């Protein structure tokens, strides 16, 4: 038997440089904030946590400081060695791979200085620079330091590999405010250049009665003993911002935002499901919240996106698809009614929903879509005639008058028949004038129009000679014109009965359809 060959598998320092390609300023700063949050969690979250991020465009300097308790000397390896991570991993933690903070620092700059001091006052300092990265020696020289307060850790990164501007600071402020919104409280504050982060969340739902947001939860066991809890909430939103495209699917893992406004085919935005991304669907939002051991989270290694082939995501994929499909279709259906049936409803309840279980996540099951509420007659005839209004803008007045009269008649006003009657008659007279002015068979001067409209009978006679309006319709129109004159110009009080207004409305609608080719079907 041959003797086994011994191979030295000690990693080389270039390992650091080979794993930083997917890091930028945002992801690097977030990794350093994650480390502070995890250190606070491991310490039992005793006391209020304060994380301070300083970005100096003028000095091209990045500093992250926290008061999470400091790192004792026997644990400093966690801050240096790739793959070194805590044994006491909990479901509230964000870090797991043991490389994020290290490579984030190296990705940002050529010089990384780390200061840490425990609550009892024992402090140390070390640095990672090009000399250390080029050597084969993995040991690290520590020096004592009391340049920070007890219980603090500070990381200072300089000689940046890529610079940043004042504009980028504003972008990072918004990014951090969104990413850590669920952590910010009176017990956890994060500041950027001295300014506390805003708490930017995405749960601004709209609560229209027939289209309430829904929420369901499930528990998965990707490993036999360890559970992953998932909650999916979907609905129409009240904070639509067209320029920001703030719709789609949002993923949180252990309370940290991982991916926002995702609208790819991975989450159902494709033909046959939620449809391709389009402003018509911009009221749709789905929030996916996943909690469990960090090793079971379906994020990528830099926590800047999702791993779409991860078993946990595949288990919930159909639920994400079906929820996005449901509210995308609702958004498209209600695109013309947002101001009246969506935006006003900013308070309400989230309806519990029992998501269908799936073992594989491969079968996409559409959630039942609530029935659309039928449009009222007034809105329907306005929508149906939009194209006509473009070609014949003078027809809009009579159609809108008919719509308003219908709305008045459906109300509870005691004199509603009189109001509707006067409205219809006034608009009808104007519409007759508009027709005579715009028709091509016979020309009417301003003087002709002025003389003609002193008598409704003469007007109706002209209309009859130019159109297919019947004598019966002319007679009824003349009858109700006389009734209007009695009501307005004579001493006697004239009551407008329900049968009168119904008959006159039919006359006005029939004549209007013949004059302007509008759609007024009931």
TrEMBL record:
Tell me which Pfam families the record gives: HATPase_c_3
> What molecular functions are annotated in GO for this chain?
ATP binding
> Keyword set for this entry?
ATP-binding, Nucleotide-binding
SUPFAM superfamilies the record matches: ATPase domain of HSP90 chaperone/DNA topoisomerase II/histidine kinase
User: InterPro entries under this entry?
Assistant: HATPase_C_sf (IPR036890)
Mind telling me what this protein is named?
ATP-binding protein
Please tell me the species this chain comes from: Yoonia algicola
């Amino acid at each position: 038997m041959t003797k086994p060959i011994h191979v030295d598998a000690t990693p080389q320092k270039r390992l650091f440089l080979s794993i930083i390609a997917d890091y930028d300023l945002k992801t690097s700063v977030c990794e350093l904030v994650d480390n502070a949050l995890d250190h606070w969690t491991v310490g039992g979250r005793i006391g209020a946590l304060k994380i301070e991020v300083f970005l100096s465009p003028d000095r091209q300097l990045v500093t992250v400081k926290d008061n999470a308790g400091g790192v004792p000397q026997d644990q400093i390896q966690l801050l240096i060695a790739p793959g070194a991570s805590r044994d006491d991993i909990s479901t509230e933690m964000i870090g797991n791979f043991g490389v994020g903070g290290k490579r984030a620092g190296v990705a940002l700059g050529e010089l990384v200085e780390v200061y840490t001091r425990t609550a009892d006052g024992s402090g140390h300092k070390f640095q990672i620079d090009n000399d250390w990265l080029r050597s084969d020696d993995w040991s690290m020289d520590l020096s004592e330091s009391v340049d920070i307060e007890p219980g603090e850790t500070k990381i200072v990164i300089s000689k940046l590999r890529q610079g940043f501007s004042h504009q980028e600071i504003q972008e990072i402020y918004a990014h951090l405010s969104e990413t850590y919104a669920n952590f910010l409280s009176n017990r956890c504050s994060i500041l950027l250049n001295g300014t506390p982060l805003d708490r930017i969340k995405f749960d601004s739902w709209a609560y229209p009665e027939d289209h309430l947001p829904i929420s369901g939860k499930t528990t998965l066991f990707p490993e036999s003993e360890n559970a992953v809890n998932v909650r999916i909430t979907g609905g129409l939103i009240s904070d639509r911002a067209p320029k920001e495209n703030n719709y789609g699917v949002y993923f949180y893992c252990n309370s940290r935002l991982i991916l926002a406004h995702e609208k790819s085919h991975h989450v159902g935005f494709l033909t046959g499901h939620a449809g391709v991304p389009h402003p018509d669907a911009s009221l749709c939002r789905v929030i996916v919240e996943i909690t469990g051991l960090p090793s079971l989270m379906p994020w990528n290694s830099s926590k800047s996106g999702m791993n779409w082939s991860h078993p946990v995501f595949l288990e919930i994929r159909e639920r994400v698809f079906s929820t996005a499909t449901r509210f995308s279709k609702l958004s498209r259906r209600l695109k013309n009614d947002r101001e009246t049936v969506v935006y006003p409803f900013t308070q309400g309840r989230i309806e519990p929903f029992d998501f269908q279980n799936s073992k594989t996540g491969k079968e996409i099951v559409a959630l039942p879509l609530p029935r659309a509420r039928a449009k009222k007659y007034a809105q329907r005839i306005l929508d149906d005639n939009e194209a006509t209004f473009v070609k014949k803008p003078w027809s809009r007045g009579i159609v809108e008058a008919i719509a308003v009269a219908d709305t008045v008649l459906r109300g509870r006003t005691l004199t509603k028949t009189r109001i509707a009657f006067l409205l219809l008659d006034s608009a009808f007279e104007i519409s007759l004038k508009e027709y005579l002015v715009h028709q091509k068979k016979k020309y009417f001067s301003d003087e002709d129009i002025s003389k003609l409209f002193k008598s409704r009978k003469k007007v109706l006679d002209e209309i009859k000679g130019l159109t297919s309006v019947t004598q019966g319709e002319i007679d009824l129109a003349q009858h109700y014109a006389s009734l209007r004159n009695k009501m307005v110009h004579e001493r006697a009080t004239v009551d407008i009965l329900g049968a009168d207004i119904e008959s006159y409305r039919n006359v006005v609608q029939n004549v209007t359809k013949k004059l302007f080719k509008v759609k007024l079907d009931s």
